[in-house]
Amino acid sequence: MGILQTKLRRDLLQMKSQALAIALVMACGIATFVMSLSTLQSLERTLDSYYEQYGFAQVFTHLKRAPQALASRLAHIPGVARLETRVVAQVTLDIAGLSEPATGRLTSLPEGRQPQLNRLHLREGRLPTPQRRGEVLVNQRFAEAHGLHPGDRVQAILNGRRQALVIVGVALSPEYVYQIRPGELIPDDRRFGVFWMGYDDLAAAFDLEGAFNDVSLTLEPGTMAAEVRQRLDEATAEYGGQGAYSREDQMSHKLVSNEMTQLRGMALIPPTIFLTVAAFLLNVVLSRLISIQREQIAALKAFGYSRLEVGLHYLRFGLAISVAGAVLGTAAGAWFGRGMTRMYARFFSFPVFDYHLGLEVALIALLVSGGTAALGVYGSVRKAVELPPAEAMRPEPPAAFRPTVVERLGLQRFLTQGARMILRQLERRPFKALFSCLGIALAVAVMILGSFSEDIIEHLIDFQFFQAQRQDMTVTLVEPADGRALTALAHLPGVRRAEPVRTVPVRLIFGHRSRLLAITGLPPDATLLRPLNRDGQPVFLPEQGLVLSAALAELLGVNPGQNVQVEVLEGNRPVRQLMVAALVEDYTGTSAYMRLRTLQQLMGEEDSISGANLLVDSRFEEELYHRLKNTPAVAGVTLKRGALESFRKTMAENLLRMRLFNMIFASIIAFGVVYNSMRVALSERSRELATLRVIGFTRTEISWLLLGEAGLLTLLAIPLGLVIGTGFAALATWALQTEVLRFSLVVDPSTYGTAALVILLAAVASGLVVRRRLDRLDLIAVLKARE
Fold first, then answer.
1. Domain ranges of the chain
2. What are phi and psi of 483, to 5 degrees?
3. pTM of the predicted structure, to 2 decimals
4. Which tens digits make up the pLDDT trace of 139-183?
5. Where are the alpha helices (DSSP H) in 348-480?
6. Coil, helix or strand for 89?
């Protein structure tokens, strides 16, 4: 073993506690990176394989009714590789053990065989047998939620007629990786299920024999999807086509894609912050090491070691720590990644979903760790390389001693001798104090970053489910009806208030951008569903014009006062230019609102509604549910309570699990930063403290000097860390934004308090460890003159 290798080993052993602390901080960053990136890759591999193997369609459209003869015309659209038609219908379900009504989505299957597109993966049972009425497959999520198996029956209202659905199999579909009710963003496995029934049986139930109302297709390689969608819209317009959309806008795929976007953000922002802290600590420690080894560096150069060899020696010090951090971080990241994969397996429906840590991820982690170390030690290594041997042989000049600001102001009489010594030390080495303070502030900031996600979730829930949506349930009708339907709903048992809603499918176009969605018409005095601005204040719906969510306006690139083209995809399909009157805040999905009467006039209707928002007396819920289950005109019922439960179970659980990971990492980082700060201070001042012991200071007094300085720096660092942490939280919030789910920057005072408390506890724990080292200080060894 060479001399420099032996020296490196001894330096690492001598500073093993500090090196381990830095390695753990670096491991936290690498673990977050590996966990997010490997989970993302596992999800992408599984999704791509599932789509390819089961023929997931690339373009979709829904229409009112079209004859089967239209299918051949659609199949001959240039660029269409394969096309399949089907019947899709929404029904009300009466499930044993579930008091409230559930919603089912029935999709037709070719008689006796799998479809060519969107093929099913059978978990149990078989396909429906032709000519056997009422046989269905049910999706796995709904079956598990209700304990359904082949042979069980479910009651449903099909086109106004009550019918028993006989379950003959349990299946998965690439269309429902993320099972969600149309028009909603939160999955509810108990109250929404997907069923597949033979075409003849389903078409007969809805008077669609020889017809279809839904189309799926795939494209030939190199085909422009936009051109195919346009031709598809033109061909289906006269049959009530509601606008073709690509796979990217298919709700299940969009939600999975948004989850991937959040994973990419998690793979970038937190690791960058964690590794920045590690680089900072490495710089501090190596700077101190080089400072106390000035004479050794001079001796090495005097004995013929080149500047390059000396520089590489200290670079290896940082790289050794980075390799340890990379190995620990990769192992921890793989473990956490498996946990994330198990969590996603509960939310996403795949035939097989295995965790895979690719070699490239581990290599990237090693490179990132090494790059962080190189960045952290660059300044210190450069200092060691450029240090002239003659200068290095001389001890560093002592700091300039002069009266401090406190002493010049005459305030020293109010301070103890120890307090005056602490203030002198801080003032005479301001940059050292500043960097120590900054290091602790970064630990505070990381704690905020690790724990603020609960605050943004609670804010979203309060804003979305209690301020904007104040109804207990929303009832959707099979077909738009006149005002008598509202009266009927208002007189149902337990209904305290009923407010009408009219939803109309449209395509909004501004310049070259467009979006398919539904405009929601509300009465001007609506109190149950209220569009709100960012401050939580209701936004008045104008007599004319549209009110858009801020997210939708950003996607379209439109501002208030500008006009958008509205292409209605229902009824007479009018096309209008409407002004954007105002913007509202909406944290889930994108939305557009109009005054109810204005929307009805746009549609050429007198008094038409699509459903109603209801405020309900809980004492009459059971009777109300029973009536709704048996009302043929009701297509579906959405309970806010159920939506809230589902949100907490899915979206919130995902982010709160990430919060747990970040809190674990943040706690490690907090202790590592504070402990390193104190160890560096002890290393730098050991000679001074030993001198004080020799001249009569007690152990308690010198401990007060060292730990008091660290305590003062910690108290000064906490406010700075709260500010930096808020900036980190803002950066992370930005990284988590998606089209489907958005967050507002909210940091609760309790989060600030928790971060400050954890840092204070870390400081106390570190102080106790350092105090033990101080008590064992070898006065003779420390006071020996450096030769």
1. 59-252, 418-469+644-787, 495-616
2. -65, -20
3. 0.82
4. 999 999 999 999 999 999 888 788 999 999 999 999 999 888 776
5. 359-386, 389-392, 405-408, 417-428, 430-451, 453-461
6. strand
